[in-house]
Amino acid sequence: MLYAVVDIETTGGHASANGITEVAINIHDGNEVVERYSTLINPQIHIPIYITALTGIDNEMVKSAPTFADVALQIYQLLNDKVFVAHNVNFDYSFLKHHLAAAGYNLQCKKLCTVRMSRKIFPGKVSYSLGKLCSSLQIPLQSRHRAAGDADATSLLFNLLQLHDVDGVIFEMLKKTSKEQVLPPHLDKTAVTRLPNQPGVYYFKDNKGKIIYVGKAKDLKKRVISHFTGNKPNRQRQDFLKNIYNIDYVVCGTELMALILEANEIKRLWPENNRAMKRYEHKYDLCVFEGQNGYLRLAIDKHKTNSKPLQSFNNLLEGYNFLNHLINTYQLCAKLCYLQKAATKCTAHENGQCFGTCSGIETVAIYNKRLNAALEDIQNMQPSFALVDEGRKDEELSCLLVEKGKFYGMGYFTDKIYLDEGFEPVKENLSTYQSNSYILNLILSHAEQHPQKLYKL
Q1: Cα–Cα distance measured from residue 324 to residue 348, given in angstroms and rounded to the nearest whole number
Q2: Pick from 335, 336, 325: nearest CA to 297
Q3: How many CA atoms lie within 13 A of 352 on its CB side?
Q4: Alpha-carbon distance 204 to 243, whole Å?
Q5: Across 200-340, where does the E strand assignment appear?
Q6: Burial class (CB in 10 A: 0-12, 13-18, 19+), 34
Q7: Rounded distance, CA 100 to CA 28, Å?
Q8: I want to staple 195 with a disulfide (CB 3.0 to 4.6 A). Which of 200, 221, 278, 416 is the partner?
Q9: For 299-347, how does the pLDDT look when each residue is reduced to its tens digit (9 = 90+)?
Q10: 370: three-class secondary structure by DSSP
Q11: Radius of gyration from C-alpha coordinates of the chain
């Protein structure tokens, strides 16, 4: 078996927007290096100053160097049919696979990561960066952060790893059934193997234990592994591979419960990599307040965090349509509901649909009584029900409770008898969660699709 021990230098941290500035490949026969190849590469984009400070490679050095397309065939021939070995292998592999694909070559290799091998064969090291690992193992490292120097040091490290691999770590990693090489370099395999094949929420953590990503899954193990399979060259994947050190999880009874828990956890924890859910907010709310003259007033306003609206809407038109319905049904004043300017004549009054409230003819008490009736009907229109489904184990049931149009909470119990005794016994078995229109719509949609799970309370 032949190995290709690889190191590259680049213009940045992810392949889709960055170029390669240097490549070194050492062909290793399992005992020693039998062939060496290295070259500077003109990335055809600007090399940032901070990269030059790290590697010493600047724009002038690569000006007359070949482009990647010029050397792609030679690189592909060196790597093809070899085991691809590198320190943090997914970084080097993702760059070379991406740029080889752009040149028309499909790289498919088995991979070995010397970071992951070192963690298993030399456990307990303070750091597994190439520089510090070589220092602790007394491996000479020349020309740090240059491809040839780092490839030579990685080749010597690979020799040492083979020499001390008394438990067959490398053999196990090379098995087709092993998922070892797709995992982030700092993530222990047991963090993935212990994951159950159940619905739930998972938490990616960095080296300080900080949660950097929250996700939901119908199958926790399959979903987590899917984050690491393939060799996507985008920034988010590379950040995952670089920063994930551990995984925690919570098992849920159903995928719907996992979705709801995920939404609440993202709002609570605000992880740096959960961009899409952070942006989700309903845009407009129906609010009620008392004006200076004592009249209760309704208004459609932009959504505010921690507000408790009567109703929420995805857009302004939806909100205005609902408010107009209230005005027509309960003879409310369009001016007091901010649907007409104060200086204009009240069209509702002219049409006989307003009792002169906006001009002071109708008293506060009479108008507010009618508006309170509208508010009471809004509350009564809101559904109250429980969704009962599978639990986390055979003898358990899960429950999600909606009370007067608001998501109350969710939890587990073992007997449906709780549902025969009203809200309070059910609530005692539930954990409360924040309600919003996103979560409520998920529940309402699920209830509509699965009416057999619905219990009206």
Answers
A1: 11
A2: 336
A3: 0
A4: 9
A5: 200-205, 211-217, 246-251, 284-290, 296-302, 311-313
A6: exposed
A7: 22
A8: 221
A9: 998 877 667 778 878 788 888 998 998 888 888 888 889 887 765 555 5
A10: helix
A11: 31
